């Protein structure tokens, strides 16, 4: 009986205490989005960057350069890089998205500019991802065309079907864009 009394605290100390839930890590923290476009016919790559290193709130986000300026009638190879700069050193979220590509989809929405963009990479289910893309500009009028390019990362665990509809938004950035 004495042995049972002595051992009782050991049994209660080994109990599985699941009262401290783990934080929800479904959506990634993304503070920086870099879209790099390289002309397929040759030439220097172009890029545009959204950066909000302290995350939501605090210091306002910046876009550099102020406008993504593309050449008319040109095909570009695009690539996205995403970072979480709230961590030191900054965490490259691109690798995580690639690893979980069957749960992520980038949606490219040009508005008011003669531009089409399509994802060129696929996940294990042969659905588009968008870390790699092809951007094609059309003609520009005499003053060029200006508008915007919205890039949205949709997080779609268990629901990805190749469309933007299911899931949550991890990040959404609108870049001023011109074709001239």
Characterization of the model:
- The chain is mainly β and 180 residues long.
- The chain is built from two helices and eleven strands, in the order αββββββαβββββ.
- The relative contact order is 0.20.
What labels describe this entry?
globular, 180 residues, four-stranded mixed beta sheet, Type 1 periplasmic binding fold superfamily protein, Immunoglobulin-like, mainly beta, seven-stranded antiparallel beta sheet
Radius of gyration: 23 Å
Structural domains: how many: 1
Write the H/E string, N to C: HEEEEEEHEEEEE
Strand-residue fraction? 35-45%
What is the terminal separation in angstroms?
89 Å
CATH class: Mainly Beta
Number of strands: 11
Q: Work out the helix count.
A: 2
Give the helix level as a range of percent: 10-25%
Q: Helix- and strand-based class? A: mainly beta
- What's the overall geometry? globular
Protein name: Type 1 periplasmic binding fold superfamily protein
Give me the secondary-structure topology.
Layout: H1 2-13, E1 32-39, E2 46-51, E3 62-64, E4 68-70, E5 75-84, E6 91-92, H2 93-99, E7 104-111, E8 115-119, E9 132-137, E10 145-155, E11 168-179
Parallel strand pairs: 4-11
Antiparallel strand pairs: 1-2, 1-5, 2-3, 5-6, 5-9, 7-10, 8-9, 10-11
Organism: Hymenobacter sediminicola
Protein name: Type 1 periplasmic binding fold superfamily protein
In short:
It comes from Hymenobacter sediminicola. The protein is mainly beta and 180 residues long. It is 11% helix and 41% strand.
